[in-house]
Amino acid sequence: MKRKCFNRIATLLSAVVICMSWAAQPAGARGAQQSQQPSYTIPEYNAFQACQTEKDVPGRLSCLDSFSTQFPNSTLMQYVYQLYYQTYFQTKNYPKTIYYADKLVALGGKVDQGSISQALQVRVQAFSLSFDPKAADATDQLTAERDAAMLGTKVLQQLPKPSDPPMTDADFADKKKPYLAFFYAAAGFADISLKDYPNAVQAFESALTNNPTDPVSEYRLGISLLALNPPQSLDGFWALARAIDEKVPQSDDVQKYLRAKILAYEQPNCDSLADAQLSELLQLAANAQERPATYSIPSSADLQKIAGASTILTVMSDLQAGGDKAKMTWLAICGAEFPEVVGKIVDVQKGDGTVDFMVFFGATQEEMQTATTANMDVKVWTSAPPAGSTAAQETPQPDVLRLPKDDPIRFSGTLATYDPSPFLLHWDQVKIDPTIIPTEEKHHVVHKPPTQ
């Protein structure tokens, strides 16, 4: 995923290099010749002009090699290096492109900032097209790439405003933003590859400040935030959601990754609950650039705290209350097993190999005694469940068919789902307490619900 996304940046970069021509001074000896007192000889000038006008690529490179040997200290070497890296980039010899771009940049104050900026852009692009993470010197390459990219941001920020065409300071600042975003994104990629996640976060945040709708930088920002120690999980989730909304390459895979990270963060008993949270997060990210201050996702520690303090009575109360309280409680207790639940059977619904006891649970025996409407669906298998089904491991309890309507019930089970309105809590993996099952099928006096 990371490699493919970065290659996409590299593909887009060629336009950046071409468009950046407004920032560079005229290349070649023609620009230098315009000086009132040229600092090179006529033979130097003629030799370089021969290289510059050579159309045959191998011939041009051979010409440049000859010039470098004959005039190693010429003031025209900056133009030689420029022609070198442009030619090598044209031939897709990216290591040589990087080498000669670096040679030009190393001249420092002897070269105008526009030419340095252009060389750095081509150098960064060449790296993106040729970097091999398995290379023996991969760490050194990444460090050099990061340094070059960050130097690019500094050079851009120091560029003088051109007089032709005239523009305001604000317009000039806006014009530089795409190039700053490019350099920061390149630095961030190097940082993330070096596992320097704090600096990667800073770089990608700066990239997005200059280009707020770059899905690749959003994606990599999310990855970096989640890799921090400790991770900034909510901000990381938000960045990944923004990347998905902005159509990051392989967005389906990114969405699966985000879902997995949310599950690992929360560790709920019911994995399916992550789907609703993911949907909510993506919807919010589609309508806002920044994460709302009120939006949060509970951590596993938050959910464990709720689960540890929950009883069936508090669970029923919280779920029926609705809102955020119901969401948090359900995240904490969905799939949880309760060892002993009591209630009153309001109705008995027999199915094919199953029976659903429609049960009312209340806080007091009086409530249960007078209840006529169920708030729990307690499903029990009375014959062997189908092989391969999710209930295949459940032990059938045929004797429970002797439990009639209005009888008390005591059972253990796992919370499966619930209907908010009308409220109904559904149980799976139910085990009825055998001591409450009549020994034979006959009409009998209704008992009070068992004491909790």
Remind me, CATH topology of the largest domain? Serine Threonine Protein Phosphatase 5, Tetratricopeptide repeat
Q: Write the element-wise H/E pattern from the N-terminal end onward.
A: HHHHHHHHHHHHHHHHHEEHEEE
The major pleated sheet works out as:
5 strands, mixed, barrel
User: Looking at this structure, what is the CATH superfamily of the largest domain?
Assistant: Tetratricopeptide repeat domain
Mean pLDDT: 89
Strand content: 5-15%
Write the CATH architecture name of the largest domain.
Alpha Horseshoe
Q: Which class of secondary structure composition applies to the elements?
A: alpha+beta
Q: CATH first level of the largest domain: which class?
A: Mainly Alpha
Distance between termini?
A: 55 Å
Widest sheet: strand ordering: 1-2-3-5-4
Coarse shape: elongated
Number of strands: 5
Rg over C-alpha atoms, rounded to the nearest angstrom: 35 Å
- Note poorly predicted spans: 1-35
Helix content, binned percent: 40-55%
Number of helices: 18
Tell me the count of domains: 3
Describe this protein's structure.
- The chain has helices at 2-19, 29-33, 42-53, 57-70, 77-90, 94-105, 113-130, 138-158, 169-193, 197-210, 215-227, 233-245, 251-266, 273-285, 300-308, 312-321, 323-333, 365-370; strands at 337-350, 354-360, 376-381, 408-420, 423-432.
- A 5-stranded mixed β-barrel has the order 1-2-3-5-4.
- The protein has 3 domains: 2-275, Tetratricopeptide repeat domain (Serine Threonine Protein Phosphatase 5, Tetratricopeptide repeat, Alpha Horseshoe); 304-333, no CATH class; 337-436, OB fold (Dihydrolipoamide Acetyltransferase, E2P).
- Strand 1 (337-350) and strand 2 form a beta hairpin.
- The chain is α+β, with helices and mostly antiparallel strands.
- Mean pLDDT is 89; it is low at 1-35.
- The protein is elongated, with a radius of gyration of 35 Å.
